[in-house]
What we know:
Blueprint: H1 6-16, H2 20-31, H3 36-59, H4 72-81, H5 89-105, H6 122-134, H7 138-158, H8 163-166, H9 168-186, H10 191-204, H11 221-240, H12 249-262, H13 279-288
Amino acid sequence: MNFYTGQALLEVCEKETIFISEAMKRREMELGSISEEEIMTKLARAWEIMQNAATNPIKEPRKSIGGLLGGEAKKMNAFRKAGNNLCGPMLSRALAYAMAVLEVNATMGLIVAAPTAGSSGILPGVLLSYKEVMGVLDDVIYKGLLNASAIGYLLMRNASVSGAEAGCQAEVGSASAMAASAVVEMNGGTPRMCLAAASMALSNLLGLACDPIAGLVESPCQTRNSIGAANALTAAEMVLAGITIPVPFDEMADAMYRIGKNLPFELRETALGGCAGTPTGCSLGCNLCG
């Protein structure tokens, strides 16, 4: 089984009456010559790493190598536990967990780059908050991971997940699309609804620059991961509520890629524009670089 576009994936799912997660699992088994047991073992390991990365900085914050991060996730979680949060139990958790993973990344810890290190907090942040609030078993999360993998594969094949190539919309946008689609399936949505959620998540972040201060994956990367998580949950809830988006996933992915290629090089991970190009960003960059 194989599929090269979102439309082809949808046709496979509707013909076989299967979810996207099942289609992706069958693809891996057939093309990767890997057993279902091996797939589940890999998923369990990836999920273990994701959970550790999303929670360890909340328990034991560490200062990042560049010094721009350290302790933010713990503050977010404490704010939620004190009953002061504005966003509700699932989103507030997702924000803290997404930020935590970026702290792990910035301290050379172990993460799952799904799809990249710079956007690695979005998927675990969304999935772990969903698991805790909805009380689902890990088997449901594994289906979410498989679903997200299918969306990520399509974006890597037909567009980009690289900030250097297509801006932060390609990193945070893609991760957000993956998480949105995963949540829709885990909540019982159809493959068509999953692709709609992915398209909506992408559309909300079109044009987002990649402008890391001092060239470090710290700021504004950390807070953008929290925005990516919020965007994913927003898109998923809208689609599950019956709200549609007129532009199909494949066309939205193409639009994202074309916008990315048209971004000036200063806004594609060069640390020369955007946040990095502000007087404060330049000053921080000079201080950090000695």
